[in-house]
Amino acid sequence: MISDHLQVIDFNKKLKSWYLENHRPLLWRQTSDPYKIWLSEIILQQTRVAQGTPYYEKFVLNYPTVFDLAAADERDILRHWQGLGYYSRARNMHFTARQIVNDYGGKFPGTAIELSRLKGLGNYTAAAIASFSFGQVIPAIDGNVYRVMARLFGIFTDILSNDAKKEFTLLAAQIISKEDPATYNQAMIEFGAIQCVPVAPDCSVCPFTYMCYAYEFNLQGKLPVKAKKAASRNRYFNYFILQKGGLLAMQERKSKDIWKGLYDFYMVESDDLIASPDYFPENETIGDILENGRIREIPKVFLHLLTHQRLHVRFWWVDIDENTNITLPPGLNFYDLDEVHSLPKPILVDTVLREEGFFAGE
Ligand code: SF4
Question: Is any atom of ligand 1 closer than 6 Å to the C-beta of 153?
Fold first, then answer.
């Protein structure tokens, strides 16, 4: 454990020199613009660096400033976000951009406490922006940093518990560099991301073996302590893709359920995987579809994993003659190919349209 001022200085010196030699040249590390750092942090909450980088580039290109993002159409933002999942983050991002423009004249507030009052900014993101952009001496503790600290200092507190936040923050406040908090935070995060990795870290090249608790007691596999997550819920979605000529029937998802604001097809949820649409004898819409359309089963069952849900998804493609009158259920409307293309959609819906060749003529 680090117990005095000189050890703190020595630790920071070693950490910084490790960082300068080893860090990846990530785009958002080359700026102190809080808007861009914020974008990168929100995107990286969703995905890994390699997958997140093109999204970051796309957002910076389409919305170079917070004013551009604030003025954007939410549907376009969701479309650019498509594939990252957890779409409420994109909506919160849009809301926050408008808040910064309207309430702060387009300038991000400069302290973690003010930043954490903005929608969608947790303590970690607020601290990261405050230190990277404004040099505030405040530790930014993400999953990587929890791991590094738990191993270095032998902390056995469950990192998902309420106590952990306080305990790790107190300790981090003692070891953070007061002269260069931005580099300290960047370095701790990067150290966890590429050196003190979750499985089998290569301790032989680590500059901290002399002081690392996990290394001394061979506990790298046991630290950090993390309680098991609640099991995922299985859900079974049955989609009917209604096509009339070049038009597809789609609807905006409005409820508080997953994918709010995105567009999908007529869907009925079942308690289990079903083999045929005949499973829904009471459903008038499906009765109408079976009577008036030519139905084609897409044999594949898609498995789509969300944070706490496992979606088992089936699709049936239904061709309806152009002169057949069919009453669409409320909320569904027909859209042409260009519109379908530009509507924000869950990645799964986009995938099935591509696999079935709907966009082939583009
Ligand atoms: S010695 Fe190993 S476990 Fe300890 S900080 Fe270094 S990489 Fe992580």
Answer: no
Substitution site in 18, 152, 194, 223 for ligand 1 pocket (most atoms within 8 Å of beta carbon) = 152
Q: Which two tokens stand for residue 193?
A: 């991301």
Ligand 1 close to Cβ of residue 215 (< 6 A): yes
Helix (H, G, I), strand (E, B) or coil at 264: strand
Mutate to test the pocket of ligand 1, among 18, 149, 202, 206 (most ligand atoms within 8 A of CB): 206
Whose CA is closest to atom 2 on ligand 1? Answer: 203
The tokens of 291 are what? Answer: 């009577």
176-206: per-residue pLDDT in tens?
999 999 999 999 999 999 999 999 999 999 9
Q: CA-CA-CA-CA torsion for 156, 159, 162, 167, nearest 10 degrees?
A: 60
Cα of 18 vs centre of ligand 1, distance in Å, is 13
> Within its chain, how far is the Cα of 181 from the centroid?
26
Whether pTM exceeds 0.70: yes
Q: Which residues are catalytic?
A: 41
Q: Is 244 in the pocket of ligand 1 (CB under 6 A)?
A: no
Backbone angles phi and psi of 119, in degrees to 5? -65, 135
Q: What is the pLDDT of residue 361?
A: 57
Among candidate residues 328, 349, 331, the one with its CA nearest the CA of residue 340: 349
The C-alpha atoms of residue 87 and residue 65 are separated, in whole angstroms, by 21
Show the DSSP H helices in 179-283 as ranges. Answer: 181-194, 213-216
Q: Return the pLDDT at 12.
A: 96
CA distance 93 to 118: 10
Mean pLDDT by 10 residues, the chain (362 residues): 80 97 94 97 90 96 98 95 88 96 97 94 95 97 96 95 92 95 97 96 97 96 87 92 94 90 94 85 85 90 90 94 87 94 93 88 57
Residue 151 Cα to ligand 1 midpoint, Å, equals: 7
The token duo for 135 is: 């040099």
Output the pLDDT for position 22: 97
